[in-house]
Amino acid sequence: MSEDRVPVLRAAGLVKTHHGEGAPAHAVREVDLGVARGEFVAITGPSGAGKSTLLHLLGGLQRPDAGSIWLDGRCTDSFSEARWAVERRRSIGIVFQFFNLVSNLSVADNVELPALLAGAPPKKARAEREALLAELGLEGKERSLPGELSGGEQQRVALARALVNHPPLLLADEPAGSLDSKGTREVMRLLSRFHGRGQTIVLVTHDARLASAADRVISFFDGRIADDASLDGAPPRRAGISGVLELKD
Ligand SMILES: Nc1ncnc2c1ncn2[C@@H]1O[C@H](COP(=O)(O)OP(=O)(O)OP(=O)(O)O)[C@@H](O)[C@H]1O
């Protein structure tokens, strides 16, 4: 199979049950999923449907009880925690609702850190950081601490950090969930821009309007895929970001 036809991400038979204080929560039940290179997939559904759990499984942040995940055709079944950490540095960028920036590191250091940890020479890490922060409109903020920035700015820093190693896959878990509608539009515009350049994106959101920025929308309900535009023969939907841009402040 040519490299372009190998899915960036494939999951088969994924199962995850959380055991907390109460009854077990069957968050992900027998989920199969393939994401092609360059796709922008939104996973949407009600609170508690299992969306975040699924994304955490796909990024190796949690382990499935059953099922397998392949990254670029490589089976991750035998990956150790350390190996997953390496993958998250090199092949998977992740952005979260609450940014998860290192609060006592400057913006510049937050963005450069994953590049340095992945073995990039400091000069290259710096050049990548400068290019990304410029692209994301954050020049002049390099020396700031995350706490000195607005929510929207912090999420742009988190996006720069996630993309600094040019990962083939970007996972985004409610990246606009703690932002106002201006910040939301900004994040979605940026995701659309990177997708336009070929970035593969899997976005989890409970907001159907945000999901409309993606070209494939998967509805998740009660731990299962209830609907997937690509499964019923519909051509990939390319709704653009019009739905997002219509959001009012
Ligand atoms: N660490 C955990 N321990 C126990 N139960 C959990 C844990 N994480 C999630 N759950 C439960 O698993 C189910 C799925 O949660 P999950 O966060 O994946 O859903 P979600 O669709 O992302 O919801 P939301 O949109 O509210 O973030 C819920 O019933 C939740 O309470």
TrEMBL record:
<dbReference type="InterPro" id="IPR003593">
    <property type="entry name" value="AAA+_ATPase"/>
</dbReference>
<keyword id="KW-0813">Transport</keyword>
<dbReference type="Pfam" id="PF00005">
    <property type="entry name" value="ABC_tran"/>
</dbReference>
<dbReference type="GO" id="GO:0005524">
    <property type="term" value="F:ATP binding"/>
</dbReference>
<dbReference type="InterPro" id="IPR017911">
    <property type="entry name" value="MacB-like_ATP-bd"/>
</dbReference>
<dbReference type="GO" id="GO:0098796">
    <property type="term" value="C:membrane protein complex"/>
</dbReference>
<keyword id="KW-0067">ATP-binding</keyword>
<feature type="domain" description="ABC transporter">
    <location>
        <begin position="9"/>
        <end position="247"/>
    </location>
</feature>
<dbReference type="InterPro" id="IPR015854">
    <property type="entry name" value="ABC_transpr_LolD-like"/>
</dbReference>
<keyword id="KW-0547">Nucleotide-binding</keyword>
<dbReference type="InterPro" id="IPR027417">
    <property type="entry name" value="P-loop_NTPase"/>
</dbReference>
<dbReference type="GO" id="GO:0022857">
    <property type="term" value="F:transmembrane transporter activity"/>
</dbReference>
<dbReference type="GO" id="GO:0016887">
    <property type="term" value="F:ATP hydrolysis activity"/>
</dbReference>
<dbReference type="GO" id="GO:0005886">
    <property type="term" value="C:plasma membrane"/>
</dbReference>
<dbReference type="InterPro" id="IPR003439">
    <property type="entry name" value="ABC_transporter-like_ATP-bd"/>
</dbReference>
<dbReference type="InterPro" id="IPR017871">
    <property type="entry name" value="ABC_transporter-like_CS"/>
</dbReference>
<protein>
    <submittedName>
        <fullName>ATP-binding cassette domain-containing protein</fullName>
    </submittedName>
</protein>
